[in-house]
Amino acid sequence: MVNGDTINICRGSSILYESTAQGSPINWRFNNGQPSTATGAGPFSITYNTNGFDTAFQTVGSGAFADSMFIIVRVDDVKTNVGFDFLPDNACGNENIQFTNTSTNGAPYNNYWEFGDGSVSTDQNPTHQFLSAVGSSGTQTFQVKLIVTNSSFCIDSISKTITIRSVPDATIVKTDPLVTVVTYNDLTTFRYCEGDPQHNFKFDNA
Hints:
The protein is mostly beta strands. Helix content is 0%, strand content 50%. Strand 15 and strand 16 (155-165) form a beta hairpin. The protein is elongated, with a radius of gyration of 29 Å. The protein starts with 5 loop residues before the first strand and ends with a strand. 17% of the residues are buried.
């Protein structure tokens, strides 16, 4: 930190202070923080429960050789009304689902999406495919969670359930030893001897 910097913090949260100063003694004063004073290099966890502007002071040394610095702590309890919409619902797992962040109050935001399938995003309005929804039929549900941190570093979240239709997985398994399965342009291709009258293939619908 630089002398005079300002930190934003949500009311009820804590800041961890640790000195990098050379010299002693080291004394701290946190005004409205709890606790309000400390000595030594730390670290010290100071909790702020009162809205407004506070000041944290650090003094190193004593008498004519003392030096000091301070930072300003802005404490607020602005809560974001977290929300999001998505379209379409009940879509296939290989379709793009558009998620729209509808959060209000306390912008700008840091957004963190959890899609319930191990995937995450920090985009404002992400799109996502639920490619793990694989099966011969039926649907799967995923719990999608949006976590928002606002400009006061207050954090809130909301979760919604989305229904996804399973996508069939047609896996091709070669059963004829005369047929070779290769990949060409990311597509499964078959090579065979033109003199053979027929070949057998097995299609697995997982």
